[in-house]
Write a structure and sequence with these properties.
- By secondary structure, this protein is α/β, with parallel strands linked by helices.
- It has one domain: 3-Layer(aba) Sandwich (Rossmann fold).
- Helices cover 39% and strands 20% of the residues.
- A 7-stranded mixed sheet has the order 3-2-1-4-5-7-6, with helices on both faces.
- The longest helix is centred in the first third of the chain and has 15 residues.
- The relative contact order is 0.15.
Length: 246
């Protein structure tokens, strides 16, 4: 497995991250995009049945058990971090041969051409050379195969200021998406759909606890989707859900 200097930095960062006894402080904010996960898994459920599925940058495997319930042929997971793969194997070993996990480089995988019906991931592409990953996913996807990803945006100035003030919370090479990245995606793939999340739900996150049981969160997430119909407000979103076809 050949690794660039950037790959090695990401590997070291995520090995260290997964070795910590506690998660990152920033995890408290993720409740503000709880609705992105509902939509993400709904898309995965639709495209996973009887499919060869790749969890691209699987980390410790938070999605693999859920996806295995959608009746895929097989779920393969890859990650550059050996510690993450070890944890993922421990978590999913009861699934047996349905799941295969291994250390691999997402930018240049060991898979053959046209191997997968579905490639998905969350919070991974912005850590990598995006154009290289798009080409690699194209190579390993079957004709008509699906791509589904959750990624952060880099267009909200307040969030970007927070990122600059907390550099140790993230790897030095990560690059949340901009319009240029989304344009590149649209040039390489078909039927690209992008949905935006996390504006009012993030601003007012102290006002609710469990988003799944909160009327306030429901109002805020619905208001966000109305605002995101206007292009200007999309620049203030925190994250996006991407789906596309080869």
């Amino acid at each position: 497995m050949r690794l660039t200097e950037k790959n090695l930095r990401e590997k070291d960062f995520h090995n260290e991250l997964q070795s910590r006894p506690k998660g990152r402080f920033e995890n408290i904010f993720y409740k503000s995009i709880a609705n992105i996960w509902d939509d993400f898994y709904e898309l995965l459920k639709k495209d996973s049945r009887n499919a060869e599925v790749l969890d691209y940058g699987c980390g410790v495997g938070p999605s693999i058990i859920e996806v295995s319930n959608y009746e895929p042929k097989k779920v393969t997971g890859i990650d550059i971090s050996e510690i993450s793969i070890k944890k993922a194997k421990d978590k999913t070993k009861f699934l047996g041969s349905m799941v295969e996990l291994k250390v691999d480089n997402c930018e240049k995988t060991s898979f053959k051409n046209n191997q997968f019906d579905l490639v998905y991931g969350h919070g991974i592409l912005h850590h990598l050379e995006f154009s290289r990953c798009l080409d690699e996913i194209l190579r390993i996807l079957k004709p008509g195969g699906s791509l589904i990803f959750v990624e952060p945006l880099g267009t909200n100035p307040i969030i970007n200021l927070y990122r600059k003030l907390t550099p140790k919370s993230r790897s030095v090479d990560e690059h949340p998406f901009t319009d240029r990245d989304l344009a590149l995606l649209k040039n390489k793939y078909k039927h690209v759909e992008i949905k935006y999340y996390g504006f009012l739900t993030l601003i007012f996150f102290p006002f609710y606890l469990n988003p799944n049981k909160s009327k306030i969160f429901k109002i805020l997430k619905n208001a966000d989707q109305i605002l995101f119909k206007i292009k200007f407000f999309r620049y203030f979103a925190w994250s996006i859900l991407i789906s596309a076809k080869k």
